[in-house]
Each structure stands twice: as C-alpha cells, then as structure tokens.
Specification:
The structure is a single chain. By secondary structure, the protein is mostly beta strands. 12% of the residues lie in helices and 45% in strands. It has three domains: 53 residues, no CATH class; 94 residues, no CATH class; 37 residues. It is built from two helices and 14 strands; from the N terminus they run E-E-E-E-E-E-E-E-E-H-H-E-E-E-E-E. Strands 1-2-5-6-7-8-9-10-11-12-13-14 form a twelve-stranded antiparallel beta sheet, with no helix packed on it. A hairpin with a 5-residue loop joins strand 13 and strand 14. Helix 1 runs antiparallel to helix 2.
C-alpha cells in the first residue's frame, strides 16, 4: 500500500487562510486587507476594524490575542492583554515625511473587552453631535488606555531624536531620556503638569 502524500503546491494565490486546530477552532488568520477579519470577542465578530493585510492570532479560547498588520503607512506587531486590547506593540509609522518607530507599552483596564467593544460600537453608531461626543468622553474615562512606555525614534521636521519616555497612570510624560539630532544626551524629570522639574545636565 502506497503512503498517502500531502498536496504540494509551488505557488498559490489566496485571499485568506485560516489556520485551525483539529476541532476546527481558528488559531491564526492570514489575509489580504479586503478579507481581514473583524474584531472577534467571545465568539462575536464586530465590524469596523481598519482594513490591513496581515496575520491575526487567536488564543486557546478562540479570542484574538495579537497580530501583525502592515500597509503603506506602517507596520505593527501587537500582543493583547487577555480579554482586553493590545498592551505591547512594536510599531513603525510614517506620514508626510515624519517617522516614528519603536516599542510601545500600554495600560488596559481590568474590565471585559466585550463590554468595551459593545459600548464603543453603540456610540460609534450614533449620529454626530454633542451627545455622541459626551458619551465618547465618558467612554475614554471608563476605559483608559494610557501609553506608559515608549522606546524608539522620532524623526519629524521639528525633531530627530532617539528616546525613552516613561508616563504615569494618566498617560502624562514624567521621565524623558533623549539623544537629540546634535547627538546631545539629556534626562528630564517632569511634574504632573508637564513642566521640567529636574534636568541632566542642568541648563
């Protein structure tokens, strides 16, 4: 009896591939931008995700847990907090000749992602106006996601820096470690209002 052989292809064209476990549970989706999946939370798919080519990862429960996306404006490799959104990101972004790239660390609330997504989806479905704006402000307060750490480069018409930024629980920058375009290093400690309280070297 001859052994069965797996199909072999030298080249295939496909818009999306779903990698699944033996029980059919999707663990990875590889797609072009037009076939990229929506947000999947507790088995429910929500529309509205920006369309990007890439790879989406799913955990043992079938919940999204990160991904790799890319396009003309940049690329990002993201890792999600369980039952929440991304907390670690390696990102590159370019717009109008300005570039930002590096490691980003966010805080996420200890509240279910489904609650956050359903509420955000309901607000986005409302017509524009003061009520929608107020609800969006309340949403941002209830589901904060401050950037706590950035390690990378910023190159704009105004800046050309390699830097480390540490922020507090409200997302306010509190420590800056910078090497500027003149290769001059500095360390700045900021107060809660964003003013420099201490600087090395001192001016």
């Amino acid at each position: 009896m001859s052994k069965s052989k797996r199909p072999r292809f030298e080249e295939i064209d496909v818009e999306r591939i779903n990698i699944v476990d033996a029980d059919g549970k999707v663990r990875m989706a590889i797609s072009g931008k037009d076939r990229s999946p929506g947000w999947v939370v507790r088995g429910k798919e929500f529309p509205g995700r920006p369309k990007h080519a890439g790879i989406i990862f799913y955990n043992d429960d079938g919940e999204e847990c990160g991904g790799l996306v890319f396009g003309n404006e940049g690329i990002g490799l993201m890792f999600d907090q369980r039952d929440q959104d991304q907390i670690i990101g390696l990102m590159y972004s370019e717009e109008n000749g300005s570039r930002w790239y590096g490691l980003n660390i966010w805080d996420r609330p200890d509240r279910p992602l489904l609650e956050m997504v359903e509420r955000h989806h309901a607000i986005r479905s409302m017509p524009d106006g003061p009520e929608r704006e107020e609800l969006m402000r309340e949403f941002a307060k209830d589901f904060p996601c401050p950037l706590r750490l950035f390690v990378g480069r910023e190159k704009t018409p105004e800046k050309n820096e390699a830097k480390v930024i540490l922020a507090d629980s409200k997302g306010r920058e509190r420590v800056r470690i910078v090497v500027d375009s003149s290769d001059f290093p500095r360390v700045e400690i900021l107060d809660e209002n964003g003013k420099v309280a201490y600087k090395i070297p001192p001016e």
